[in-house]
């Protein structure tokens, strides 16, 4: 009897990301992922019991990658003050890679439409906001800076707008400055 070939799970998830980028999460099929990975449908289903489980695995891996990137960036920050926002700014220093944008766009749609995936995103964002507030010398400034940074990333990741690199760098510096401020409340017009 022959030995079962070990399936590279990162390779399966890479293939799933490519399918999501090309076809959208709603159009992802186990068959398409298997074909993209060069394996059988049964091999995909062995570890990911359904299309939904496969999408969840892709999303979970994206969250782990994001967490690891921010932890890596925070590790390079010299001061503990404002650690979380500084790490986020460092992680955003480069615009998203072209091949990542399509997957980000299509996964965002899945996160929006699926209640269980949306809950994961809500929990992730709650954790980020809590960490920002805990590690900042100006919690309100850091929160406003985070909102500005996420707005910039939203425009780029969803391919709505791209700033020239020089302007983008300036915006990131200004967002960092915002994180250091003590905003005052003003009345809305």
UniProtKB/TrEMBL annotation:
<protein>
    <submittedName>
        <fullName>TetR family transcriptional regulator</fullName>
    </submittedName>
</protein>
<keyword id="KW-0238">DNA-binding</keyword>
<feature type="DNA-binding region" description="H-T-H motif">
    <location>
        <begin position="29"/>
        <end position="48"/>
    </location>
</feature>
<dbReference type="Pfam" id="PF00440">
    <property type="entry name" value="TetR_N"/>
</dbReference>
<dbReference type="GO" id="GO:0003700">
    <property type="term" value="F:DNA-binding transcription factor activity"/>
</dbReference>
<dbReference type="InterPro" id="IPR050109">
    <property type="entry name" value="HTH-type_TetR-like_transc_reg"/>
</dbReference>
<feature type="domain" description="HTH tetR-type">
    <location>
        <begin position="6"/>
        <end position="66"/>
    </location>
</feature>
<dbReference type="InterPro" id="IPR001647">
    <property type="entry name" value="HTH_TetR"/>
</dbReference>
<dbReference type="InterPro" id="IPR041479">
    <property type="entry name" value="TetR_CgmR_C"/>
</dbReference>
<dbReference type="InterPro" id="IPR009057">
    <property type="entry name" value="Homeodomain-like_sf"/>
</dbReference>
<dbReference type="Pfam" id="PF17937">
    <property type="entry name" value="TetR_C_28"/>
</dbReference>
<dbReference type="GO" id="GO:0000976">
    <property type="term" value="F:transcription cis-regulatory region binding"/>
</dbReference>
């Amino acid at each position: 009897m022959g030995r079962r070939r070990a399936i590279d799970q990162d390779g399966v998830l890479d293939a799933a990301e490519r399918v999501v980028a090309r076809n959208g999460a709603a159009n992802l099929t186990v068959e398409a992922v298997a074909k993209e990975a060069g394996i059988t449908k049964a091999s995909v289903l062995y570890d990911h019991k359904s299309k939904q489980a496969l999408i969840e695995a892709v999303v979970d891996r994206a969250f782990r990658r994001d967490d690891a990137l921010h932890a890596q960036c925070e590790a390079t920050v010299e001061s503990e003050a404002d650690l979380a926002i500084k790490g986020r700014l460092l992680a955003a220093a480069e615009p998203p890679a072209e091949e990542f944008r399509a997957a980000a766009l299509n996964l965002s749609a899945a996160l929006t439409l699926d209640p269980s995936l949306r809950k994961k995103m809500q929990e992730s964002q709650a954790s980020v906001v809590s960490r920002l507030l805990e590690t900042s010398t100006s919690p309100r400034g850091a929160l406003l800076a985070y909102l500005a940074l996420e707005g910039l990333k939203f425009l780029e990741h969803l391919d709505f707008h791209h700033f020239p690199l020089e302007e983008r760098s300036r915006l990131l510096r200004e967002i960092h400055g915002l994180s250091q401020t003590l905003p005052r409340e003003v009345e809305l017009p």
